[in-house]
Every structure is written in C-alpha cells, then in structure tokens.
From TrEMBL:
It holds the Pfam family Phage_int_M. One of its GO terms (molecular function) is DNA binding. The keyword DNA-binding applies. One of its GO terms (biological process) is DNA integration. Keywords: DNA integration, DNA-binding. Residues 112-182 form the Phage integrase central domain. This is DUF4102 domain-containing protein. Residues 11-96 form the Integrase DNA-binding domain. It comes from the Bacteria. Belongs to the 'phage' integrase family.
Amino acid sequence: MKRSEIKRRPLADTALASLEPEEKEYRENYGVDRLYFMVGSTGRKRWELRFKKPDGKWGWHGLGSYPDVPAKKARDKAQDAKRLNAGSVDPITRKANRKASRDAAETDTFRAADLWLEKKIEDGRAEKTLAGINGALTNDILPALGKKPLSKITRADCANLQASIEGRGAHNTAEKVRVWVAAPSYARPHGLLYCPAGLVSVNR
C-alpha cells in the first residue's frame, strides 16, 4: 500500500502492515496523540512521538518498532510519555537515565568481586589462596554471573554454576566457589546487594 492511498486516520492495522517503503524514509501521521509511523527505505517500521520538551523545543521520542509494538501499545506509550511531559519530565532524558541505572546495576557484580578480592589482599591471604580466588573469578564466576546485577542473581544461577564446575569433576573447587560466590555479600556495606550462593549446597 502506498501512503497516497491512505483513506482515513487513525491508521488501521491493515494500513500499518501494508505500507510500502520508498526510496527515502518517511514519517506518516498516525492520526491521534501526536503519534507518527516511520517507514524506512528497507521496510523497517517504527513508532515516534512528537512532543514538546520542558524547554519549549519540539523533539521526537522513539516508542519501539512495529509490529513488536502494535498500535494500541504505541498509543499507551504515547499517553505515558505525555503524562511525564505534563510534569515537565523529558521522556528522552528519563529513558536515558533509566538505561544508565540498568548499566550501573550490571557493574555491581564485577564491583563486588573487585571489592572482595581487594579485601582478601588487604587481609594478607596467602598467594596460593589469592591465585585460586582470582582463577575462579576469571574462569568460572564472572563468565557465568558477571553480566547480571547482584540483585538479579538467583539460587538457580548459583546452582548452575556449581553444576558446571562439578561436571568437570572439580568438587573441591565447586565447594570453594560456593563459599566465595556468597562472599560478595561484603558488597552490602558498600551500597551493593546480596548474592544467594551461600544457600546452595554442593553435591558429592
């Protein structure tokens, strides 16, 4: 369907699905809520909201790709963004801040591991022990859990880590890792969160 053939607005689902790409990306007014439908030259489609920023300037706020975000959901998102805007909250800034918060949360596990290892070094633990801890962090713990915020690590995650180590017959290492993974609860006084690994037992 060519956009010149659009008969009515708000755009019907059939129109959204059948709008054809053109040589250049174009933006079509959905019909309500200052909502617009973008069609890329490759056929990729997405939603954008036209909104006025707190400083009085107009901007565009992406609401997701189509058909992952259907029209009803796009309208709901537009209403949410308008409510924020009415409260002098820039939805783009809010989205960026929330992403930054998520990214920061994902560093908690690495930060907790660093803090804990630093504490062991400060405590004067034997070089052999420190080498074992560092090896477990590098080879087992952080590859399995490092990309998850501590608040999202579950007993199941820890149990899977244990099982993977036991699967290669390293039961002694698995027992040590169980204790070591629980230890980043040391992170709590530093504003980080708790890991439940200490609640996981090691099978013999």
